[in-house]
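Give me structure tokens for this 476-residue protein.
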Amino acid sequence: MQSTVLKLKSNSISKFKVFLSDSLESLNAHPTYGQFLSEIKPQLGYKQKKALLHIEGNWHLIQVLDEKDASLNLAELARRKSSDLVESLNQFQLDSVEVHGNLGGNICLAFAEGLAMANYQFLKYSSKAEKKKNSLKTIYLEGVQEEGIQWVNAKLQGNFMARDLVNEPLNTLTATELSNRAAALASEDMKVQVFGKKEIQEMGMGGLLAVNLGSEDPPSFTIMHYKPKNAKNKKPIALVGKGVVFDTGGLSLKPTANSMDMMKSDMGGAAAVIGTMKSIQAAKLPVEVIGLVPATDNRPGKNAYVPSDIITMYDGTKVEVLNTDAEGRMILADALAYAKKFEPELCINLATLTGAAAYSIGKVACVSMGNAQEGVWKILDEASTLSGERHARFPFWKEYQEMIQSDIADIKNIGGPEGGAITAGKFLEHFTDCPFIHLDIAGPAYLTDNYLYHPKGGSGFGVRLLSEFLKTMNYG
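Here you go.
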């Protein structure tokens, strides 16, 4: 896992200092930078609005953050502006940086968060890892509360864990190994239980077993139960993540060129759930949360399930399979039905579920939908603003449920050619009995190029959004 951490500044120890300013005018009164306005002003004229100075042996980066330049808010602008700094630190071979400014502690924290995320690397299997390794290890902050630093560090731990999981290939991250990684989080407050194939068969999880039929590797079902003694909620919140560790499409083999190249990332929902559990554990958040991860790969081998099969799910629902590449919803349905045992006050599902969602809004946000109360959606909106992980809410009307009615079974696992992301969500809703939110993270979960403060590969999308949501949620 990435080791970049945030710390409270005690002494002047870094040779690279970042000052975040609200305007050029405010720099005039600064005890140091006011003397160098003649050097700063020409550099700030460029679009990036930053200036680099070398003063008494130290580098100083002046970054002006203007609310008018922010697509979401000033904190997110600060995260985005931080990403270019990694290259400069590598150039000078500096392992630390100091961040301060006149915009407040939260903006400094956001800048540091973005910098730490931009600094992430997955070099586990590179023989040249030491040469490629970024130099930055520590980010020191001034003018912020220790509590804020601890919270950001907790979110980063979860995000980095999720990224690591998504970036692992199938030959090192089977369904069993995914469960092992989750089980490593077990502690006094975090109980982890892993079911293997035998237990899954005994429970009758037909969806998970059907998808697994074509694989040589067994499936797994992992239950993470975080319950601190000071939990504020009377009923837990359930998080369910799709754990398809590799998806060929099964017998409905993915038809388009390069469509399987990124399918190690089809467990991005599971990674987000495991990463979120890591974050709230590290932050000692006073909330009871259940994390459920059904996991398998989806292959066309052995006795793979086929289009037209009728599958009996964990709750007894009969599903007509029309496409074996709509496998994520099959394994999630069993987990969602199982979640009823815990009587959750809310169930949130995360999955790289549909191409329709990715095509709709791309990588800039996830698609959201569900039947939760408006008050819950407002809290999700607030968490989205705080984290910078955006969601676009789709309608969830009853007409979409009608599109997945089967002539010969209870429901079918795909609708027609229209509204594919929503009919998938409606399929999942069928297996719930509590307020439900579905996040389709197919667009932002895995990136083919560097994007903002996310290096190429797994983004860990969802961890910071859910962490902020769980922290902000009113449990009264």
